[in-house]
Amino acid sequence: MSTTYLVKGVSVAGAEPTDLLIRDGVVVETGTGLSARDAQGVDGAGLVALPGLVDLHTHLREPGREDAETVESGSRAAARGGFTAVCAMANTSPVADTAGVVEQVWRLGREAGLVDVQPIGAVTVGLAGQHLAELGAMATSAAKVRIFSDDGHCVSDPRLMRRALEYVKAFDGVIAQHAEEPRLTEGAQMHEGEVSARLGLTGWPAVAEEAIIARDALLAGHVGARLHVCHVSTAGSVDVIRQAKAAGVRVTAEVTPHHLLLTDERASSYDPVFKVNPPLRTQADVAALRKGLAEGVIDVVATDHAPHAVEDKECEWAYARPGMLGLETALSVVLDVLGPDWPLIAERMSRTPARIAGLADHGHLPAAGAPATFTLVDPAARWEVDPTASASRSRNTPYAGMTLPGRIVATFLRGEPTVLDGKAVK
Amino acid sequence: MIKHLLSAADLDSQQAILVLDTAAELANISGREVKKLPTLRGRTVVNLFYEDSTRTRISFEAAAKRLSADVINFSAKGSSVSKGESLKDTALTLQAMGADAVVIRHPASGAPHRLASWVGGSVVNAGDGTHEHPTQALLDAYTMRSRLGRIAGLHVAIVGDVLHSRVARSNVLLLTTLGAKVTVVGPPTLIPVDVAPALSPDLQVSYDLDAVLPEVDVVMMLRVQRERMNDSFFPSTREYARRYGLDAQRMRRLPEHAIVMHPGPMVRGMEITPEVADSARSTIVEQVANGVSVRMAVLYLLLGGK
Amino acid sequence: MAYPKAAPSSTTSGSPPSVKVILTETDLQRVVDRIAHQILEKTDGADGTVLLGIPTRGVPLAHRLATRIAAFEGVDVPVGVLDVTLYRDDLRLRATRALGPTNMPPGGIDGRRVILVDDVLFSGRTVRAALDALSDLGRPSSVQLAVIVDRGHRELPIRADYVGKNIPTARTESVKVTLAEIDGSDEVKLIGEELT
User: Fold this and answer.
1) Among A67, A74, A333, B137, which residue's Cβ finds the most Cβ atoms within 10 Å?
2) Angstroms from B112 CA to nearest CA on chain A
3) Which domain, by its residues, includes C58?
């Protein structure tokens, strides 16, 4: 028998304050002035309730790089960030290209019990881009994989990409492409532009991303498949996706919080905490991404949470691994960028990613009969980002020292709290 | 005075001229019998060279020793550096040793910036990746001034692989600060797309060396590596030399007074012919001599005050 | 001859300080003449002698002395410039200083009598630096010192051979020498502390 909770006076996605009575994993009743004798009270005064956030793009590093993160530590960071489900990318060691590895990750997620960990399967064996992995086996495994991605690498061979797009139609899967034409980005360190010309770092041109998205959208349209585009980073990519959607292609796209806030100027300090793939780009790109997200051309915010051990970041830029933490700061950054448009935030960070990932239990506004899977945000709070206070095993956050709005106070997963009073319960 | 010299852009016009004037005074030292000054006695200068460069390292070593500083050389081979010790750990070792200045040459752009955040002493960039080589630009400016009497108002052409050249970047920045007009010349593949907005709004770009030569007071040839051919930056060394090499015929297109410079080492027959390299217009040998005085000036200005 | 414009010698205390003129233009001229005569007397005709001015104001003073010596006895004493910045012992106490020129007189200094010329003698450290600089430049047969003002407070065992005027001063006071070649007029002032 689980505990009953009564959340008092909370604003659901910006609506008038209401109470939520939670029992057996479900919101059984909403309204004002509710009471229940056996319920544990949660003070929701001044707080906003959102459906539990769903991250389509997280790197949990386990198996293989447990020094940087584990499924458990990553889950804890996710819960503290208001997430109730994360999709774990396949570039682990060994690569998640078999039913065995995806089931291992799935099981580790259940054991940690803080968020629903939905494994993503690799598209190609070993992420090598040569042979299709056993996508069907991963789909029918206990992990029920639906999203497949070689993220970290691009599926650059057009014929292979076509086959993959077609193949997953059989089990309603979707290929999530890391769009980067590798021949245009050899040795690339940062966005190709004025800053890279000044800093003497090899550039990563925007066209390397846009050309692949255009190609893949045309392929997806041609074979009648879904396509998901990871971490869109350029204004040109937004235009390509807008055009593809207008032409009826079933393409969805994600943007990271850091691409909504930071530009390539950050690289001027040569501090590799700002090194990421795809790279931070110009103010014009940031503006286009914000506009695309507001319009819905970009469907979701996904963190691309990429933990790295200290030695992989406290070194020369060229030797550093690309990637930034994102789970604990995502909502705050989005709030800073979009403002308190709670219905839009709920749509982009919970409802739509849940739909794309096929996670039926997630993305529901806390209402009578809905799963009690939600998060409570204090919209008025402001907090300073302290890398040493992170639940992640790693410290590579680009927001260190910045003050951000919005603080997660509590997170509930199917009626059980994973975070209370801003702290993980386990 | 600035604490570190990481980029030529760290110096404003007044500071850059101070370096050149100081170097001019210090150049007299090499004419004396006792080529030593007590100015930096008791200070420690560390040469941290992750790239082989005997010439630059010796230049810095001579500069530091002539000012009576103690010099310690860390080179990439045969030290803990080659055994995989991180730059940060090396920096902490230098800190513990009390290095007053670290002169660093490194294959990764930005390494001196990272080092500056880990050590308490001054950091001098002796060449980082394809980013900058500020003391080279200073000695180039010094050479121009001694040959031509001024820098402001000169028209300087920088020819070659601008994309990969730290010498080019530093020179464009410094020459612009000092009031010269700069044109970069090379095949489009070797000139960064955003080079002008990145380095100087007045920077001119040309793909036609023959058109530029009659207009300039200084032509600076950059080294071009043959290996760039394999990445399709240009089709063959023959075509590169034909279109952008400085040979005797092209040299005759220069105005009477114009000088030819090269940071070295040269690839004779590629960007410059032996005839041009050895001609009276060529400042290649002086550039090396001027390097010691200029580096003495930099060390004095960074370490010789509060 | 062009001289670099420079700030008046010695630091000034707060404002408004008391100002007392120690030497007027005429006084300064007489002092220079007297030192020129003294040099001729003490060196027995200034044979084998060179004057080295210490920048900034020691330089025009050295030239004036050479002119007066030539006027009195027709002897041409070579004049040079000796910048001592690189030999100072107090570099770390202030921001980096620009270097002044160093020009040895024609014929050099080996085996000759060098007379260092400066405007004010105070702690003696500038002269000590000059002696170190000289020893790296050559081997004079002897070294003498000529100053316009000796204001006391020596920190080293150094004394001047030729002194224009001895002025007892408090440490907090300052002596300001202005010369026509650099500052536009000739004058020596004693500037006191701010009166409360």
Assistant:
1) A74
2) 9
3) 26-170
